[in-house]
Amino acid sequence: MALRHWIVVFILGFGWGASFFFNEILLRELGPLSVSMGRVGMGALGCWIWCALRRKHMAIPVGILLPLFLFGLVQYAIPLAIYPVAQQYITSSAAGIINAMTPVMVVMVSNFWPGGERATVLKSLGVVFGFAGIVILTLPALRGAGESSFWALIFTMLAPLCYGVAVNYMRKFGQLDRVVLTTWSLTFGTVAIAPLALSVEGLPVITQTETWLSLFVIGFVLTSAAFIALFRLIPIIGGTAASTITFIAPVSSLLLGALVLNEVLTVYHLAGMVAIFIGLVLIDGRVMQAMRSKTMR
What we know:
- α5 (about 90-100) packs antiparallel against α13 (about 245-260) and α6 (about 100-110) crosses α9.
- It is built from 15 helices and no strands.
- It has about 300 residues and is an all-alpha fold.
- It has helices at about 5-25, 30-55, 65-75, 80-85, 90-100, 100-110, 120-140, 150-155, 160-170, 180-200, 210-235, 240, 245-260, 265-285, 285-295.
């Protein structure tokens, strides 16, 4: 893979890990549902601007409107609301580590999804390591210590579960252009979350420049631009190489949490992340294949 492609992968991974940092900034002035509404709404707007500039054909069959609405819920509206809600009670570092459970959830959901890929022994072992990492991460909270609430940590697990469902549900859209899919699903996600956010938290009032900047970055850069870049990158480097983003994101969330937000990193954070990383390596399978190849030579 070319160096420039690796650079894009690193930027995407670091950026998505940084989204939990920006959530913390936004939560200083906005309610968690407003954070979700702002991110999903700006993400949709950014995609529409891109599609207009590229003169993309945006018409979609009427028959997929409801599936697209449901996809917008599970891929964007619900998980991007879960994280800011949970981050009122857990650190951004913990949220970033839990987000790394997404491939683990994909394996689990795929195993039971009609027509989905059945889990191999290696992938099943990866799932075990992934959940072991979560258990390690929650140990301080179970003992009444640490900065994160146990129940909030468990609640946050619903977000990667949503992503696991969304990845499998995406098969329903066949060859539909992925940028068009993202644009419409972000739009429907906004339509879903906006009434709830406005009824519960009222109209957002933003007075701080850092809030506007954070909203701009997390909406336009880390949602619309990042997903557009990812979908342009995958056909070039392949889905497996693109999956390495999952390894980068929690590292950036830990670094920003510790260095900028002064969150306390413990051995439980590091041990939990290592266990999840081992699970991701087993699910990815490339390292194990390389080891087998060396053994057979």
